[in-house]
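S1.2 Input.
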Amino acid sequence: MTRTQTPPPESRPSAATKPVRWAADAVVTLREGARLRLDYSAQSLWRVDRVIDGIRREQTPYDAVRSALRDLGAYAGEVIVRQTGAEWWASGGDHWIRTPDGRLWDPIDEARRCFAGDGSLRLLCRDATAGR
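S1.3 Output.
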């Protein structure tokens, strides 16, 4: 690789390290704080969407929930990874997943869109797993 080339994005395991940890943090936080059990199933994303909707309705400032939204998005990504065999990819500090059919998904950004009232982690998972 010459000095002018951009390095390729990292793939699992190094790209997955942070999102896997963030997803686990979401599981622990919701279990301890809201007494919700997340089991990495597509059905559990209904609960995650409701949690984000509740946070939005409380008009919580974005900066106060930024890391929680990141964790919940990473959880949704891990659901997709486990159901489809997708892989986490990272570049420039952003994390997304690539499903085996080559499609790219950004569940962390989708969690932010949910908070803005224009997204659904459940529907993202449904779409990402439809082609498996």
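S1.4 Remarks. The radius of gyration is 15 Å.
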